[in-house]
Amino acid sequence: xxxxxxxxxxxxxxxxxxxxxxxxxxxxxxxxxxxxxxxxxxxxxxxxxxxxxxxxxxxxxxxxxxxxxxxxxxxxxxxxxxxxxxxxxxxxxxxxxxxxxxxxxxxxxxxxxxxxxxxxxxxxxxxxxxxxxxxxxxxxxxxxxxxxxxxxxxxxxxxxxxxxxxxxxxxxxxxxxxxxxxxxxxxxxxxxxxxxxxxxxxxxxxxxxxxxxxxxxxxxxxxxxxxxxxxxxxxxxxxxxxxxxxxxxxx
Length: 251
Hints:
The chain is mainly α. Helices cover 78% and strands 0% of the residues.
């Protein structure tokens, strides 16, 4: 399992565990203990952590798509192109990009004046419910969120689509049906995660202040922050022959 694909999967697992750890414990306290308050500092910390982890994961998914493109379309040069230095650089670039996005978004949203009572109709501190508390005109900030959504979600998504268009072209040139199935199975898990992540994230942030489907946003946020991070280990392990073989040998 010491290949670039599994290196990226280890990083993805760390991001998923971290995202769930930021959201789920406080959510359980809210539900079970009845204490639904959060400090100002705690809200800032939670928002910053969620945004940096989500943005980093998006850029990492684009890097994983590029890894699959090189593995399938340039198999003879795969080890040379996707060496350990390149893999670490892609992960570092993803983390730095996610951190910059999170710092800008968190700093901007907490410069807004908030009205009393300071209560959000949500289960964690996120950008859409926070800007709905603002006492000032947020139209400029909403436009900035849409631009950030395009930068963080649609740009990596377009790169992923281009990678998979090239991959699909290579798969169709494979003569045997078994070879096509084996090659496509290595990419299907990644496509499932990208689809779930893109759909829920886009619907949440493209209309940040739309209150007419607030309950639907909470469901989408639950998918984005809890369901997808929980499903990722199952999707990538139970659908992966090498991982299953290692698990069987360990047991």
